[in-house]
Amino acid sequence: MASLAVLLKNRGHKITGSDQNVYPPMSDFLRDNGIEINSPYQKENLIPHPDHVVLGNALSRGNAEVEYALEAHLYYCSMAELLKNEFIRGNTSIVICGTHGKTTITSLAAHLFHQCGKPTGFMVGGIPENFGTSSMDVEKGGYFIVEGDEYDTSLFDKRSKFFHYLPDRVIINNIEFDHADIFSDLSEIKKSFSLMLRQVPANGLIIVNGDDEHALEVAQSGYSTVVTFGFKRDCDAVIDKLKVTEENPGMSFELSFQGTTQQWKIPLLGRFNVKNAAAVIVLALTEGLAVDRVQQALYGYKNVKRRLQLLTNNSQIKVFDDFAHHPTAIKETIKAVRQTWPDSRIHAIFEARSNTSVRNFHQQSMSDAFGSANLVTFAKIHRESSIAPEEKLNLDQIVSELKERNIKARQMPTQADIVNFCMAESKPGDIIIIMSNGGFGGIQYRIAEEMDKR
């Protein structure tokens, strides 16, 4: 919603908006772009009547402004609908989707296309540091690259947002169960992806992770050419010979595609980011971008804020802020840090906050997700009192299972307790990874600031 607001403001529209509990980086992004946030929600925020009211999918019936918009018959629409009609239509639409990696792949693709001289607009659920903005407009006839979220569109449209994005090119990075508040099982998620692929034209392209059986299955429901990437030898683009590079640090790997094998380097960590990069390389090469220009653009890529973002400026202790909340993303992120700094002690601090992670859907896989850490600290579950006891993630069980694996694990009741413990426990050489898909009360910034002072 913040990204769309800035796109519209940059076209000369007057933008107002309401929200609550807004946190960085998007709160800073809105402020820096001169967009004020009204809080709390109240009907007076819609008087005088705006020409358009965009209802975000976080809103539900009972919200004061939703109710007033309905009563007053204001012109309202969803974010996805407005984005489609005002910014995507008339361009080649590239939709990046999957359970994990969407934000990184979208920002990386936008960076590559922009650096290779292609007219490119984009919208992504984060702040890519190469651009300093989460969205950019483009004149008709260019490319528009959008992060295709499978979450529902709005209170009045329960289709996934990516259904609206007029896809010409699609990347499906992976498909796992998530968003338990709107999907009852994995089959419902796969059905939503399949409905989206039915809109890709016959001359379009579906690029899919060939190592993911669910993504592969879904890709076959489309009517377009399918290109696979991955580590399996039968993929169209085969990844091989991964290793950590000392510069930056980053990763190097080989990719065999279209009859040739090329060596690639990226300033990102981990096997999962190699796959993210491979998806974008395949997209770039199929669109005719030159290999040398693509590699040069990869060298210059900077990650998205809150995606394993280094916050400290000292040489003793590293503090990373990361958005991971699904057990697969948690596991891969910690493994990437372990692979890069094998001798460091890793302290993972996690807040269960998403609608899925606060419940016990992933109870069995959560302890394994933290298996590469040395210390694990769990914050109090977000909005714990609103979750039925039989549905709630059992942190006690996870702590017990981690201790059985000789990993020091604990729960802490307050954010202040976590900060104090972190400062008392940390030693030179440690790496601290703070994981939440929310603001986490800003503890990542407090810990980083205190570590730099020390």
What is the fold's blueprint, element by element?
Blueprint: H1 2-10, H2 26-32, E1 53-55, H3 64-71, E2 76-78, H4 79-88, E3 92-97, H5 102-115, E4 120-123, E5 135-136, E6 143-147, E7 152-154, E8 157-160, E9 169-172, H6 186-197, E10 205-209, H7 213-219, E11 225-230, E12 237-245, E13 250-257, E14 260-266, H8 271-286, H9 291-299, E15 309-310, E16 318-322, H10 327-340, E17 346-350, H11 363-369, E18 375-379, H12 395-404, E19 408-412, H13 415-425, E20 431-435, H14 443-453
Parallel strand pairs: 1-2, 3-6, 3-9, 4-6, 9-10, 10-11, 11-12, 16-20, 17-18, 17-20, 18-19
Antiparallel strand pairs: 4-5, 7-8, 12-13, 13-14, 15-16
Task: Show unreliable segments.
Answer: none
Number of domains: 3
CATH topology of the largest domain: UDP-N-acetylmuramoyl-L-alanine:D-glutamate ligase
Shape by Cα distribution? globular
CATH class type of the largest domain: Alpha Beta
Biggest pleated sheet:
10 strands, mixed
Separation of termini?
38 Å
Helical content band: 25-40%
The CATH superfamily label of the largest domain reads Mur-like, catalytic domain
